[in-house]
Protein: PadR family transcriptional regulator
Amino acid sequence: MAGTKALTPAVLHILLALSAQERHGYGIMKQVESDSQGKVRMGPGTLYGSIRRMTEAGLIRESDRKIDPHLDDERRVYYGITARGQQALATELRRYRQVVAVAHERSLLPEGA
Amino acid sequence: MAGTKALTPAVLHILLALSAQERHGYGIMKQVESDSQGKVRMGPGTLYGSIRRMTEAGLIRESDRKIDPHLDDERRVYYGITARGQQALATELRRYRQVVAVAHERSLLPEGA
DNA sequence: CGAAACTATGTCCGCGACGGATATATGTCA
DNA sequence: TGACATATATCCGTCGCGGACATAGTTTCG
Structure:
C-alpha cells in the first residue's frame, strides 16, 4: 500500500506497547498479547527482527536503564519510544480510527462483542 | 503476527470498500482512496494480486452482474463480498477497534485531527 | 534436590504480500 | 487529435512475517 508508508501491524503493536513505558523484548511480547486481549501473539522472529529494523529507523532506542541486578534479570535489554516513533504511532492510529469510523457509518460494528 | 491470521491492510481495505456494494477493480481502488481520505493509495499490483488471492480464499467472488453494455463499460469485472468475507472483515474490525480503544486509554489520540 | 516450566534474547530462512513498472486498450472531453 | 482518465492484468525485486531452532538463566513445586 502507499500513502505515507503505513506501519506494519507488528511495528504498530510494538510502538503501542512502548507508549506507556520502557520495556524489554519479552515484556513487549507480553504487553502486545495483553493489549490485544490475547488475540495477537508475536513470535521471537517477528519481535526481534522488528526491534532491529525499528531501531535502525529511529522509531525506538535502546535504553540505558540499569536497575539493580539483584532486582532485575540482567539479560534484559530495555527499549523506549523516540519522538519519531511517537509521531509515527500517532499518524497510524489516526488511520486506524478512520477505518473504525467508516465501519461505524456502515453499521459493520455491533455495539457489543 | 499470529492469532487468527490477521488480514493484511490491503485485504481489509478491499473488504471495507465492498461492504457497501459490489464494485469493479478500478472502483475498489477509488473507494479505498476515498474511505481513507486519500491517504491510502493502492497500485494495480496490490489490487489485482489481492483480488486474485481473496477470490481463491473465498472472501470475495466475481459477480454475474451484467448491466446494459451501453450504460456500463464492458471491460468491468464486478466483485462482491461473501459471507466468509463479511465475517473476516468483522473480526478484523474488532481488532482495529481494540487498538483504538487502547490508544484512547493512553491518551494517544487527541480529540480533533 | 531435581525436573519442568517460564523468562529472555537471538539467528536462520522459506514463504508470500506488497507495489512500482510496464503493457494494452477503451472512454471522455476540449 | 491530443491528452488524460478509465480499466484490467502481469512481472518481479524487495522485504516483512513468523515458525523452528539455539542457548541459557530463573522460578516453582513436588
